[in-house]
Prior knowledge:
Number of helices: 4
Bound molecules: flavin mononucleotide
Amino acid sequence: MIDKNVFKKLSYGLYIITSSNEKEKAGCVVNTVTQITSNNPILAISINKDNYTNKIIKESKKLIINILSEKVKKDVITTFGFYSSKDIDKFANVDYELFEGIPALNEGINGYIVGEVISITSVFTHDIFLVKVISTKVINNDDSLTYKYYQENMKGTSPKKAPTYIEEEIKSAKPIYRCTICGHIYDDSKESIPFASLPDDWKCPVCGVGKDNFERIN
Ligand SMILES: Cc1cc2nc3c(=O)[nH]c(=O)nc-3n(C[C@H](O)[C@H](O)[C@H](O)COP(=O)(O)O)c2cc1C
């Protein structure tokens, strides 16, 4: 018998992995960064095969691990952890600099690690990227963000593609819906009427399509 609650006993940090090919930038939240060796440092990261960031990393073979601090804005985690770079420009509202063309965040991080992919192992839904460190930068000495802090203090959840996803968590979170036409977000936790209770003739306030065009994203 597997009680998935035991996985909550594992401790993790939280990171935003960024990457870029010649044309596009991508980035996503992960909790799965582990240092494997210290001399010639190698790190491992697990990234879902459906994540757009996975595709961009495979194309460029380079990435940056942005080490989140407890001061990161929750909006940044929501943007990078619940939306896809394929649909929105995740970098539109964050301060970043480019390191060899890859975005490194300037806010909410304690430092970043620039790495080159040396191997990719397919594990069912995810790929494990082994990454050789080529450059690093320490930015702040604030406490680094842990999964525990994110869940308990920031009241954060994890989406389906996170390895730590547990079905019940999603059920207890208030639903968020996105218009599949224009991207408008209807977040039940910020609205007085739950999406499910809106009248059938309700229209998207931005592009005017009906409720049927909305999909739940958390
Ligand atoms: C707290 C948290 C932890 C996550 N951990 C991972 C992870 O380790 N691996 C992964 O593939 N996705 C993880 N995700 C999910 C991705 O960040 C999410 O699917 C993202 O929308 C993918 O964006 P992309 O399509 O732009 O790459 C996590 C999300 C959150 C909020």
